[in-house]
Amino acid sequence: MTLCEKLIDLRRKAGLSQEQMAQQLDVSRQAVSKWETGRGMPGIDMLEPLAEALELSVSELLSGQR
What is the value of pTM for the model shown? Predict the structure, then answer.
């Protein structure tokens, strides 16, 4: 499973739409879409808020393991 696929899976498991995740992270829905399609990646400054939104630690987010 690619990182993009993992982000989609984790977002869905957290019960969030792309729009809801974008609002939590104060980014556009298009930014979330780019992360999930591999056309872009979240900046390092987004790792902690992204992990929090997905109910993970940053380590779990980066490793792809819970």
Answer: 0.87
